[in-house]
Amino acid sequence: MTTRINPHRLVQASPADLKHPSNNIKRIVLSTAQIAVEAHPAKWLRTPSKPKSRVLVIAHSDRGALDDHALQTIAAAAILADAETAVLALILGELNDDLSSAAADEVMILPALDFQIFQPDIELASVLAIIELLKPKHIFLPDNLIGDGDLGRRLAALKKLSVATHVLEIDVQHVASAQSGGCVLAQSNLPEVILLAPNAVDAELPFTAKATRIDAPTINHAASPYQAHYQDMGLQTSAAEDIALEDADFIVSAGNGVQNLATLASLASSLNAAVGASRVVVDDGKFPRDKQIGATGKTVTASTYMAIGISGAVQHLQGIKDCRHVIAINKDASAPIVKRANLSVIGDAEAVMQALMIEIEKAKEVVA
Amino acid sequence: MKDSVKHIAVLVSAGRHPVSGEPRHCHNDSLALALGLNLASKVQVLHAGTPSNPALQDYFALGATQIDVVPNSDDIIESLAAQLTDANLILTGTRAESGEDSGLLPYLLAAKLNVPIVADALEIKANREQLEVLQFLPKGRRRRVLVSLPAVVAVHPSAAEALHFVHARKNLGNINTLHASNTKMQTIIDDSKQADSKQWRAKPARKPIKLIAQTAQTGHERLMAAISNKAKGGTVVNEGNNVEKAQVILRYLREHQLIEF
């Protein structure tokens, strides 16, 4: 039987809303306190207590963290897994993050297999040993260029597994990827190895997982005979000014709030960062057009984006939507960039930049 | 050090113009051809498909003198591998512009021939029994890798190699069709698993549907989610002097390992 709600009840904000200023209700809602509390339910735990099978997600970490692409891949595995299937995330390289919000039920870390070192056959041998041990139903990898796309293809080619690459669309029944130069979206049944393209999955999940760390089995690397074919001569990082803005990993970007561009340039060089600019500054002629970041300029994918004196118009935020860490230095605490930034420092851009350069010099001296 | 690698084979595929759809050379494979011609004055150019494909003429314009065409068969890898048993270096693009373009071919070929493979090559240098490959990594990083020969090298599309397209050469080349007797035809597919993977159902291109987790929400919850502000944004530092603010930024950069000092 449905309970009737008194239409003459008093209008009130719920106690939960009063307690948390972050639950900033825009309108007055006719509701009882209890319903308002339920409006923000805690995420439920997905991890099966007695998993009957497993799916494996393999991803390389970069400096102890997973990128969005890898998190999307774990999310895809978790969404597709049924109630009796556990998601095992095998991380190659170090990992400092907790993967419970990424919905990995179990996490296995092989810190020696960092992406910076080219050792495809050791990686392959380790992965094969783990596959042999756990017998996963499907293997998910992000189709990227830091080694996961390479590893997945090597694995599928060596073991003659069914595979789909550049997967743009995935659900419980099928995968789809672009073929014939993009004029065909071909579909196939869910194969054993799935290499996901970026942004094919929404990493926002309504559930969490336990993310239990499990120890990796001891793997005899010496048993891999192929590694002798490869020899890593080391990584080269080019100077920041030689890298195209789309390719840069660290960008210091100037907005209208920057008075002295020389300070910004020397800050960028001390951080070995590329320099970008917002539309206003480019329109003023202070930077060439190819430095513009935003909807009409370039879309950047840097892991660190330092926005100095940029208010953050929608068009600009569009250009930095794939940046992992956004640090804003701005005079105005109510600017839209503050909502986007992971860290916002409110203050005068010039003064903070000067102070930051001194701090960087000190830090470099300590290391040297 | 030209001609230090004995037998270089370049695998080329038919491309298509991204706008008009006209057949043309595949840009990525052309880069592989250009890198091959840097290493040796003569390379074997191999194509699996139909000999009459107009796209093949473009490779003559790009410097090939003869193209060996392996006719389509059930197992392309098998027939290509049969031609490449004595090749020291096999060059190809990372991804084709026609067919399945999954980027798997170099890997399948390497597994078949049991030779090492290096993908995403930007530059290659030969020194005797080894090949020095400059490998592409995102974010402006590059890696130098030494690989022993024979090997398969897949060339990255951003390899900085100038293509010399000479129209006059377009009709000068020779297309040599390899007959079924030359190629080991494998008509019976014994591996049922492999056959299953090839069952792609081609559909016209459309916008892919993004996978989003189902949230079992009541109507009231959805309404509440729509009208309440989600906690957005990260840490906001308002307090302290400039030095303290700078230290906060430095601490953040260090915490996330974004700087090395």
Describe the structure.
The complex is a heterodimer of chains A (368) and B (261). Chain A is α/β, with parallel strands linked by helices and 368 residues long. Chain A folds into 3 domains: 1-41, no CATH class; 45-229, Rossmann fold (3-Layer(aba) Sandwich), CATH 3.40.50.620; 243-363, Rossmann fold (3-Layer(aba) Sandwich), CATH 3.40.50.1220. In chain A, 26% of the residues lie in helices and 24% in strands. In chain A, α9 links the parallel β16 (325-330) and β17. The N and C termini of chain A lie far apart (75 Å). Chain B has a domain at 8-186: Rossmann fold (3-Layer(aba) Sandwich). Chain B is built from 7 helices and 12 strands. Chain B has helices at residues 27-39, 55-61, 76-83, 105-113, 192-197, 219-227, 242-255, and strands spanning 8-11, 14-16, 23-25, 44-48, 66-70, 89-93, 117-127, 130-136, 141-148, 151-155, 174-177, 235-237. Chain B has a 9-stranded mixed beta sheet, sandwiched between helices. A two-stranded antiparallel sheet of chain B has the order 2-3. In chain B, α2 links the parallel β4 and β5. In chain B, α3 packs across α4. The longest helix of chain B has 14 residues, at 242-255. At the A-B interface, α2, α3, α5, β6 and β7 of A face α4, β7, β8, β9 and α5 of B. β17 (343-346) of chain A pairs parallel with β12 (235-237) of chain B, so a sheet runs across the interface.
